[in-house]
Amino acid sequence: MRIHEVRTHASAEPFPLEDHLAWKIAQVAVDPVEVVPEVREMVINRIIDNAAVAVASLLRRPVTTARAQAQAHPRDARGATVFGIPGRYSPEWAAWANGTAVRELDFHDTFLAADYSHPGDNIPPILAVAQSQGSTGEDLIRAITTAYEIHVDLVKGICLHEHKIDHVAHLGPAAAAGLGTLLHLPPEVIYQAIGQALHTTTATRQSRKGEISSWKAFAPAFAGKMAIEAVDRAMRGEGAPAPIWEGEDGVIAWLLSGRDHIYHVPLPEQGEPKRGILETYTKEHSAEYQSQAPIDLARSLKPQVEAAGGITEVDSVVLHTSHHTHHVIGTGANDPQKMDPQASRETLDHSIMYIFAVALQDGVWHHEHSYSRKRATRPDTVELWQKITTVEEPEWTRRYHSEDPSEKAFGARAVITMRSGEVIEGELGVADAHPLGARPFGREQYIEKFRTLAHGILPEAEQDRFLTAAQTLPDLGDLAELNIVLDSATLATAPNIGKGLL
């Protein structure tokens, strides 16, 4: 990897095209380096993972809305498929519907470094375009590999959160780069598409603050849709604001750390394999990634709490954790909504206090039952929930940002004080499903997750068909086989939604 210095340049300052970050990313996208076997296998795992969490969300309201919007844009055989239904649709709208389905339950893969990300959000737009263009399975693998690499590299080098910019601002450029690889576009076109994708997907982080709404699911789908449209315009010869990151009135100067700041962004050298996807990790539990290890920790501590008198005898719980966890999903966020039993599911998903309370009580976590209104308003849960606080501990913050995979951690140390004065402590650095965890996810676990989430929604024959198609991706003749289709009776149970404009 080569570390690139990225800073603001005055308009009058010499700044050749080859030094622009967007151009360097475009060069990575066109590099014909081979995809290494372990990356190839992980791409297939993440396609299965995305489908798993998508099928579990197909009957939820935001996904039903996005699907209805896509259905207003039918296409012929050169269109793309939409999860849950047959037919072909305009690729940017298929990406919108599928991206929303993938993101709705906050249950797919993650990468955390200088910023946050869900690199699996790149798959819906790339798959939609691949289907519409008749691309091969090999083309799709190469494109997803590029998108993951660029997404991971941007997240390592540029923090958006400290400036309250939503993390999908890294997704737009990554998806545009992946589409460039997919379509074998020249670097000049990819460069313009990256600039447009970043320019149109930069928004504030209010979508993840306070009372969190359904837009949290739509936000990455919007970024993917914008990336497709950016590529389309660039292919037609249209340009983008440039230099998009480094310009005098660009993203760094006015939205990030300012004109005097230098960012350090790693990118592969020419001929170096793109391995970024191997640094990412999926979720065993439907909750914000920084709560994955605390859920597992709570489950492990439950027997000790019961032996000490049970939940009703808990006096206080303090979670010692990183700056990010404390300030984003902990009491350091200063969001009263995170302690409110009437809060939205999206808000509860971003409350480590609620999540730890339920996991400690139940010893399990479920993507629906653990968030139900009945569950969130249980008096004993509410009582325990209000006793939980978080504090930042420097060592956890250091480990969060460590570049050493063996010590990088997103967990916490729990200190549970009982009314008797007994103190129960435990800590966990990485989730059980993490590559370095107690039960690392492999192909078997991805398939199990898919079957578990598809149970009762998708017929077993359709599950089998999809899994066969995904696992034979390099030789798959028709990428439409990666769609999943519900039967009409199941689809009819989706919520009724209001009529819109489309």
UniProtKB/TrEMBL annotation:
Its EC number is 4.2.1.79. Residues 285-473 form the MmgE/PrpD C-terminal domain. Gene3D superfamilies: 2-methylcitrate dehydratase PrpD. It catalyses: (2S,3S)-2-methylcitrate = 2-methyl-cis-aconitate + H2O. InterPro entries: 2-Methylcitrate_Dehydratase, MmgE/PrpD_sf, MmgE/PrpD_sf_1, MmgE/PrpD_sf_2, MmgE_PrpD, MmgE_PrpD_C, MmgE_PrpD_N. It is an enzyme of class 4 (lyase). Residues 20-260 form the MmgE/PrpD N-terminal domain. It holds the Pfam family MmgE_PrpD_N. The keyword Lyase applies. Keywords: Lyase. It comes from the Bacteria. One of its GO terms (molecular function) is 2-methylcitrate dehydratase activity. Belongs to the PrpD family. Monomer. This is 2-methylcitrate dehydratase. It comes from Corynebacterium efficiens (strain DSM 44549 / YS-314 / AJ 12310 / JCM 11189 / NBRC 100395).
